[in-house]
Structure formats: structure tokens, C-alpha cells
Design a protein that fits this description.
CATH class: Mainly Alpha
Number of domains: 1
Distance between the termini: 15 Å
Number of helices: 8
CATH superfamily: TorD-like
Strand content: under 5%
Structural class: mainly alpha
CATH architecture: Orthogonal Bundle
Low-confidence stretches: none
Number of strands: 0
Radius of gyration: 16 Å
Largest sheet: none
Order of helices and strands: HHHHHHHH
CATH topology: TorD-like
Length: 183
């Protein structure tokens, strides 16, 4: 039985936007997913979202580089044990989970504890129906730091696309934990 899930989509949406002609489809899919998840239609309307180049700039502002510091770094290491530094305990935890699942990451274009990789890993565990490991990964790792990331993302007043992406990701993670893992 294959479990239908949006985690590869969410993973891709948390990557730096590189294909301008795909952005309207991504925004449309995110809007549809949000409505399906019960997020208020007014909150899910991306029809007037920003131009592609501005979306790239917003990604950089939120997740890569900004005056005064990055508002919402998408790396577990920043949040796990209140470390505040990359490539620390959160990274080691993520890599240990990947290896336990039989995945030996090749080269990443980001650190292995980037949210996009962790969301793809959730998708992988769902595809493999590795529910005990998924439960452990969510309880002991991803859901330990994602709420703090989401607070920082929302505090940064992101554009509607990234605000909605954060909301949808939160609902999907909570749903998968409640319905599939603990269901």
C-alpha cells in the first residue's frame, strides 16, 4: 500500500527557486494543497504572488543571507540544543537517520540537515513504509526543531508563498505524525 503524500513537493519548494516558468505551477499546487488541508482560502491565495526574481531575493533574505543575520535558517543544527551553529548536533542526527535507513548521501548542495532534505527523507520513509523509523525521526529530530524554525519564519514576515509553505508543511507534518505514524 503506497501512502500518498506531498513531502517531495514540499522539499522541492524549500529549495532555491531556479526555474521561473515552473513557479506559477508550484504556487498553484501549493494553493491547492493548502485548500485541501483546510487552510483558509484567503490565506492560501497566491494569485498575486511576487515576480520570480523577487521570490529568489526573498528566499535569500529568509534562508541564506540578510543584514543583521538570517531570519529563519532552514538547518536543524541551528535549533537542536540551542546551538545556533551549522554542522553541529542537528546535522549529525540527520545524517545518522539517513544512514540507518540505508542512505549514504552523496554530495549535497546544502548541508544534510537542510529542511528540504529532511522533508524528502520523510517522503522516502513513507514510500518505504518505514513507519517506526519515521515516528522516531519526527519525534526525536524533525519535530524537535521545525516549530522553532516556523516561529522564526513567521516573525520574518515572509512573502505569501513562504508563509503558506510554512503553514502547509506544519499541517502535513502534524497530519502524517497523527494519522500515519500514531494512527
Amino acid at each position: 500500500m503506497a501512502i500518498q503524500h506531498p513531502f517531495y513537493f514540499l522539499s522541492a519548494a524549500f529549495a532555491y527557486p531556479t526555474v521561473p516558468e515552473k513557479q506559477p505551477q508550484v504556487a498553484g499546487a501549493l494553493t491547492s494543497l493548502a485548500v485541501d488541508l483546510g487552510i483558509a482560502k484567503d490565506d492560501a491565495d497566491l494569485s498575486g504572488d511576487m515576480p520570480y526574481e523577487e521570490l529568489q531575493a526573498e528566499y535569500v533574505r529568509l534562508f541564506v543571507n540578510a543584514p543583521g543575520g538570517v531570519p529563519a535558517p532552514p538547518y536543524a543544527s541551528i535549533y537542536v540544543q540551542g546551538c545556533g551553529f551549522m554542522m553541529q548536533e542537528g546535522h549529525a542526527q540527520a545524517m545518522a537517520f539517513y544512514r540507518r535507513a540505508g542512505l549514504e548521501p552523496a554530495a549535497f548542495d546544502e548541508c544534510g540537515d537542510h529542511l528540504r532534505y529532511e522533508l524528502a527523507f520523510v517522503g522516502h520513509l513513507l514510500d518505504d513504509e518505514a513507519l517506526p523509523m519515521l515516528n522516531e525521526f519526527l519525534d526525536e529530530h524533525l519535530l524537535q526543531w521545525f516549530p522553532d524554525f516556523l516561529l522564526r519564519l513567521n516573525a520574518a514576515q515572509p512573502c505569501p508563498f513562504y508563509r503558506l509553505l510554512g503553514q502547509v508543511t506544519e499541517v502535513c507534518l502534524n497530519n502524517i505524525q497523527r494519522e500515519v505514524v500514531h494512527g
